[in-house]
Specification:
Layout: E1 10-11, H1 34-37, E2 49-54, H2 59-74, E3 78-83, H3 87-96, E4 101-105, H4 112-118, E5 122-139, E6 160-162, H5 169-181, E7 189-191, H6 195-208, E8 214-218, H7 222-225, E9 228-230, E10 242-249, H8 252-255, H9 257-265, H10 270-284, H11 289-299, H12 301-308
Parallel strand pairs: 1-3, 2-3, 6-7
Antiparallel strand pairs: 4-10, 5-8, 5-9, 5-10
Length: about 300
Amino acid sequence: MSAHRLRTTTRLAAGLAAVALTVTACGGDDTEDTAASGGTGGGSSACDSVTLGFIPSWTDGLSMAHLWKNVLEHRGYEVEFEEISDAAPLYAGLSEGDVDVYPSAWSEVTHADYMEEFGDDIEDLGAWYDGAVLTFAVPEYTDIESIADLAGNAEMFDGRIVGIEPGAGLTRTTKESVMPAYGLDGSYELVESSTTAMLAELQSAVDAQEDVVVTLWRPFWAYSQFPVKDLEDPEGALGEAEGLHNLARGGFTEDCADVAGLMEDFTLTDEQYGTLENLVVNEYGEGSYDEAVEAWFEENPDVEESLKG
């Protein structure tokens, strides 16, 4: 996902299994006047602050974090962002209660092992988007149509599959499932770096009209910016389609019932999400994310009404 970075008050260090926050998340005093602050948490304790954790280079999380910031601030909540560089510490932060909500989790398939490890201490508020998939992609001009076609054609791609972050579920699936299933071990190297570096290599290859194979996913704005096509996956090695979920720390629904209820009822269509991500990442970009969300709500007044009342 993109290279854009948010300015936040605190950050989680990459690779940490848990995070120490200086801000108390979503758990005010019972006697606090939430009406004065605008917070309307309906659980056993007042809820006037929500910490959203996400991986900023994964633009589904980036987009949804800013959407929820807009909604929750409108409702009177204080919103904090925690930018986290990888999935493992994000799930750990949720399980430890250091992050309140991860607003775009690939928890069904891609991050299923993290849910197995940390899920007992995480609340699933449901999927807001259905049909997310992992993909292998090549430029439209590249003369192959299937991952199976990569076998025997390593010279076309200099024996490289350009991937993303080492801790990403897509990276793990590529190494443990896709490459063995199609006999690519030995003839290809999976290049692990970052989403930003992968997109830079894709851009360079397209500019030079060279062949390249990259690991991608849908939904993702890159499909509207690059002339790429998905490779067929006849072995099903990339896994089934899955939903994108709002995950919360244990006890969040009790503490922040109104916020949890909003998230449980929230869904977006493919078109709605696609326009949101395009506005956030491409049309407005870093420094103007809030304006992008406002513009999106102007185009989607029914969604705004359902979330803001």
